[in-house]
Amino acid sequence: MPSPRWIMSKQANGMASLGKEHLYKVLVIGDLGVGKTSIIRRYVHHSYSTNYRATIGVDFALKVLHWDTDTVRLQLWDIAGQERFGNMTRVYYREAMGAFIVFDVTRPTTFEAVVKWKEDLDSKLMLADGRSIATVLLANKCDQGRELDSNGVKMEQFCKDHGFAGWFETSARDNLNINEAANFLVKHIMATEHDILRTAVPDTVSPRLDRRQESGSCSGCFK
Asked: What Rg value do the Cα atoms of the chain yield, rounded?
C-alpha cells in the first residue's frame, strides 16, 4: 500500500473539490504493558477498559480526521511490545510516515527502553530524503501521579538528543493529551511530506530541457 497517497474528493455535483485525502501509516511502539492498545482504543473508539489482553504481533485501527478542507486517514499499527526482540519490525515499519513511542511513567525500565525502540526504528526505516520519520514520545499513565521531573529527567532535552519531534504526558483512562499528541504528529507528518515533494520536483526537469527552453526552441513542446 503506497504511503502517502492523495485522492481527490468529489462534491455532490461530481466536480472535484479543493480538498485532498491523505493516508498515513502511523506506528505505535513501546514495551509490553505501557498502554499502546489503550491509547489507540481511546483515540479511535473513545473507550477505555482495564481488560485488554496483550497484543500478539500487530493490530490495526483507522482514524479519520477532517483537516481544514482535507481528509486525513491515519492507519495506526499497534505493534506488540516484544517485537523489538524479533525480526518482524522491519516488515511492520515499512512505509510508515510517523510514530508514537510509548512508555509507562510508573515503570522506569520502560523509559530506559525508549532509546532502543528509537534506534530500532531509525535503523530500519527512513524517508525518501534520508531523514527519520516524525516521532512523538508519549509518557503514558500520568493519571497515576508520578512526576517525570522528580527523577531529574529533562524531557525536552531528551527529545532533542534522540530526534523526537516532541513529547506529551498522556492518560488513556482520563483521555488526557491523546488528541493533542495525534494532531501534533499529523502536523509534523504533513510538513515532512511537503518538504519531500518540494525538493523532489526540480529533479524531474533535466538540464537539457532547461537549456532548450532558454534558447527559445520549442521542439517537442505543446502549445
From this structure: 21
Question: Residue 159 is placed in which grid cell?
Answer: 527529545
Residues in the chain: 223
Q: 81-113: per-residue pLDDT in tens?
A: 877 666 788 899 999 999 999 999 999 999 999
Q: Per-residue pLDDT tens for 181-201?
A: 999 999 999 998 888 777 654
| Separation of alpha carbons 25 and 43, rounded Å | 15
Tell me how far apart the terminal alpha carbons of the chain are, to the nearest angstrom. Answer: 37
Q: How many of the other CB atoms lie within 10 Å of CB of 167?
A: 21
Cell 519490525, located at residue: 89
Among 108, 117, 109, 124, residue whose Cα is nearest residue 83: 117
Q: Which residues pair with 66 in a beta bridge?
A: 71
Q: How far is CA 12 from the centre of its chain?
A: 32
- How distant is the alpha carbon of residue 39 from its chain centre? 14
Left (φ > 0), alpha (ψ -120 to 50) or beta: where does 171 sit?
Answer: beta
In the chain, beta strands by DSSP E: 6-10, 16-30, 58-67, 70-79, 98-104, 134-140, 166-170
| Contact (Cβ atoms closer than 8 angstroms) between residue 39 and residue 170 | yes
For residue 218, the number of C-alpha atoms closer than 13 Å in the C-beta half-sphere is 3
